[in-house]
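Lay summary. Proteins are chains of building blocks that fold into shapes, and those shapes determine what they do. In this project we predict the shape from the chain. Here is one chain we studied, written as its sequence of building blocks.
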Amino acid sequence: MSIIAHPQQTAGRYAALAAYYEQSVLRGETFLCRHCTACKASYTTEDGRYSEGQLNAPGTHYDLTVDGKPLRIVVVGQESGTGLAHTTMADRRAAIAHTAAEQRFVAEPGHAARTQHMKGITNVLRLLFGKGLGTNYADEFIELEDGRAVHLLHCFALVNYLLCSAHSTKRSKRGESTTTMRRNCNEHFRATLEILEPTVVIVEGKAMWPNVRRAFDSIAVVDGVIHRATLGQREMFVLSFTHPSAMHPYNWGVNASAPYLLETVVPMIRELQGFISS
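And here is the predicted shape, written in a compact code that computers can read:
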């Protein structure tokens, strides 16, 4: 597999996304979203916490050419689970870098285990880059054409559909976003995809799928969870999976041998690779 990175292209996308966020979402400590009042008013849970302005960012090696074809991977989550407002693009990129450098698929002395969410992302990236499943940290690096090695988690963009989160301070850590929040944030999600121009989009969570698919101009099933979508002048593949931390047996981030991972994710990624290479 021949892999070439295009850091200047990624830097350009990062700058364009930063400019969009500064104009439409968050400038310094000032939250600018035109939907702010409506979204906040829609979340009325007494013990709830509404955290605004949680931005997304592409990894340092987001723009790639693999075997002569462009590969730009976006993984779509629902919202940030940190509960921290005003999370900048630099914060987001640093958090992913910490996971790549300091955490492991399975806990080791001096290194904590990744969350199920990040294990799921690791699984799908290993598959997309032809690494196969496993837990060996050394196998999480891909070799570029110029001889450099880069960790898989620098080679994608984690894009949360929501740029604000709503969580209970007493119940589970799962998000409690409202219909208003999900409807209003669609414009920011679409704008993010327009700038990032992904070729492959992995959607985590069936509950978010109806909202995510509304962002595309057209979307049609190719086979199973694989869809072909258009956004402006761009065409991309979109795959809709369960969330890696879903309830058993759909929790494909629990380890490298989970049933949903082996029976659904693996064959669908393999089929996707056939479409990409054809």
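What the prediction tells us: The first strand starts at residue 3 and ends at 5.
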